[in-house]
Amino acid sequence: MNDRITAPPPPLPARDPRGHKGTFGTVAIIGGCAADHPSTHTAQTRMIGGPALAALAALRTGAGLARLVMPAPILDAALTTAPEATGLALPVDNTQQVIGHEAAAVVDQLLPTAHGILIGPGLGAPDDAPGVQAAVVRTVGQEAVPVVVDADAINALATMPDIHRDIRASMIITPHVGEFKRLTSALGMHASDVTASIDAQCEGACSLAAFLGCVVVLKSNATVVADAVRAWAHDQPNSALATAGSGDVLAGVIAGLVAQHAPRVPAILRRADDIGPTLFDLARTGVLVHAQAGATWAASNHASGGLLARDLLNHIPQAIESLRTP
User: Fold this and answer.
1) Position 271 pLDDT exceeds 90
2) Does some domain include residue 1?
3) Residue 15, Cα to own-chain centre: how many angstroms?
4) 273 near 283, Cβ under 8 Å?
5) CA–CA distance, 115 with 127 (Å, rounded to integer)
6) How far is CA 237 from CA 177, 211, 219, in A?
7) What b/e readout covers 28-39, taking b as 16+ CB neighbours within 10 angstroms?
8) Rounded Cα gap, residues 246 and 241, in angstroms
9) Number of folded domains in the chain?
């Protein structure tokens, strides 16, 4: 068993009163689905709201800019939902599938200006979808920008059993239990049954983190954050958060924190005194912010259900502020 820590993450730094949009980082959110199912050509559920919710969540954490990177046919609809974001279209073919090599080129286009990338919300079924797979491979294979891998991007990793050989990015991956089982099985890992206990959840998350060289946020009724050597658990269940879009908000919160606070130069180029928060700590902070926003909603509405994911957005700034250096 790896180290189980209980201490909270270090506080966030005070916000620079002289800062501007560029100071506080740009988040790029790659997601959304406009296409029919690639194998059966039957209508696939369109997914527009997830990336928009994630963009708004990132902005609510204090990120300066959010950029939605989505299939061209649905980009305008998402920008209507999140007008504070800007947009970059992923080119599609005549079936509205994202075009693989062009998706990879768009990812390359993002890298000079992004300080954090979130990929996965509403991205669509990755089976036989080369555009989805190409976007994911290019995103996790670059070293310039830290990445949060969520939802369908995790499912895309599970379609590529050797993907761990190509991961170069500093990365946080946010699977729920089902995605965790699918991914570890595809990678040939013998992971423990993470539904058995929190200790099992910690052990499984650490194993996946070690295998992929990343931070894992394993979501269930408790949430575990782990790297290869330690795990931390947030065990305060709130059934109000069991609602569509809640995970997109959490991913957006974590990506917003990463864009603001993760080091902006590769580790090899950093000064010895230029430490900054780790991805492990930023992921834990994101989990706390999301949980606190949900708890505030439940208390103010005297309800254990009925929360809409968008309801969390207004409670994020207060939760962030409570975790800053006094």
Assistant:
1) no
2) no
3) 23
4) no
5) 29
6) 15, 28, 11
7) bbbbbbbbebbe
8) 6
9) 1
Angle CA 22–282–142, to nearest 5: 65
Q: What is the pLDDT of residue 80?
A: 97
Q: Where are the alpha helices (DSSP H) in the chain?
A: 49-60, 72-81, 100-110, 130-140, 152-157, 177-186, 198-212, 246-261, 279-301, 316-322
Whether 88 maps to a domain, the answer reads: yes
* 241 within a domain of the structure (yes/no): yes
Q: What distance, in Å, lies between the first and last C-alpha atoms of the chain?
A: 35
For residue 221, which of 126, 279, 294 has the smallest C-alpha distance?
294
- Name which of 261, 259, 257 is nearest 319 in CA terms: 257
What is the residue range of 204's domain?
24-264+276-322
What pTM was estimated for this model as a whole?
A: 0.95
Are the CB atoms for 58 and 30 separated by under 8 Å? no
Q: Are strands 223-226 and 215-219 parallel, antiparallel or unpaired?
A: antiparallel
User: What CATH number is given to the structural domain containing 171?
Assistant: 3.40.1190.20
Q: 262-275 burial, b if ≥16 CB within 10 A, otherwise e? A: bbeeeeeeeeeeee
Task: Read off the pLDDT of residues 300-314 as tens digits, 9 standing for 90 and up.
Answer: 999 999 999 999 999
Over the stretch 106-145, which tens digit does the pLDDT of each residue have?
Answer: 999 999 999 999 999 999 877 768 899 999 999 999 999 9
The residue that leads in pLDDT, 229 or 41, is 229
Which phi and psi (to 5°) does residue 59 adopt? Answer: -65, -35
9 within some domain: no
Structure tokens at 309: 């994911």
User: What would the DSSP string read from start to end of 192-229?
Assistant: --TTS-HHHHHHHHHHHHHHHTSEEEEESSSEEEE-SS
The one-letter amino acid code at 27 reads V
- The pLDDT tens digits for 42-78 are 556 688 999 999 999 999 999 999 999 999 999 999 9
